[in-house]
Amino acid sequence: MFTTYNEALDWIHGRLRLGIKPGLKRMEWMMDKLEYPESKLKAIHVGGTNGKGSTVTFLRSILQSGGYTVGTFTSPYIEQFNERISINGRSVSDEELLQLANMIRPLADELEETELGGPTEFEVITAMAFYYFANIRKVDIVIFEVGLGGRFDSTNIIQPLASIITNIGLDHTNILGKTYEEIAFEKAGIIKEETPIFTAVKHPGALKVIEEQAEKKSAPIFRLNQEFTISGHESLARGEVFTLITKLQSLEQLELNMIGQHQTENASLAILAAQYLNQIGLFTVTEQAIRVGLKQAFWPGRFEVLSENPLVIIDGAHNEEGITALTHELSTRFNDRNIHIVFAALTDKKLDEMIGKLDKIANQISFVSFDFPRAAKAEQLLNISQSQNKMAVDHWQSYLLQEIKMLKASDMLVVTGSLYFISEAKPHICKYLKN
Fold first, then answer.
1. Tens of pLDDT along 135-157?
2. Can you identify the CATH homologous superfamily of domain 5-296?
3. What pTM value is reported for the model?
4. C-beta of residue 66 within 8 angstroms of C-beta of residue 283
């Protein structure tokens, strides 16, 4: 039995030693022991390479604006571990997490003695989420974000009301496959029999794979630029505005307070899922709820402006697709600024492609490392860069504060890369900015 929150958290984090073990048998074993809490939930399943967290947030905010109590399960965390299990945007309490850890620990120990082996960190926290929403804090609906891939992800034991696949990129290629098509097959594993799938996948080969899987499962499919389109997009100072056109209606001048053209796609997927829930009569989602929900939606660490003066932005662009979106926004919104980028990454990413894109946009680029098992060394990142104004930094904590202090009116600091790094850097920067 754990007696404190920190003991429980140390045990959960300690399971990172087991790494990633794709497969559903350990989850099914635990769900059997817990009397199948996942079967008691109304759920939406969200997969894809980038944009999952933002799409979850848009959908949660829309449903919450409609008066519903909405659970979310997301990963990784930005500010606090507890936020991975939340209700209406509020994280599970320390006491509840301690209760959940004490519930799952005996099962994990018992499972360890079987031929299946012990559950990973992600499997443990997923089991906690299922039990929490089914038995401790019952909600109207839960939105589950896929952790990795889809087909063998531990969240994939649910039978959702609808599924969403945001996009497909070449990420986690050592696990999911080397091609867009191979990765799409893993992502498409969340498509269930006769269950609608909403997608913003644009890569032709990847989309074809998803279409084939949808057809096999007799799942109605709703595709960007086919069943729904986005038009009239304009960037605002702190957000986006766009029109969503479906075969049933047009929603004009929808406004977001999250920055990035790609967020219009994530928001559209959330709208379509909400409208589907409305159509089948399980929820009442008005146009007003959609508009209010979109404007109120906020997801930390995604092109988040931490300070206007000096201008400091933090963005969890942790793969090539994320870096592409980031550099697009920087070049269109801030081409009059002197852009200083601080970048950290994990070694299993396409570092040459990512750094190449950053080199083109940065007036100055600094590489840092951080305390994480797969974190790339600053010197390794430096050697990849072709920038004329680059450096490797040993101690990122003091360096960031020093750079913020030196920023001029024409400068901006962009802290980006691994979400694990962002989760450490954001509170450090915010604490300094508040003083």
1. 999 999 999 999 988 999 999 99
2. Mur-like, catalytic domain (3.40.1190.10)
3. 0.93
4. yes
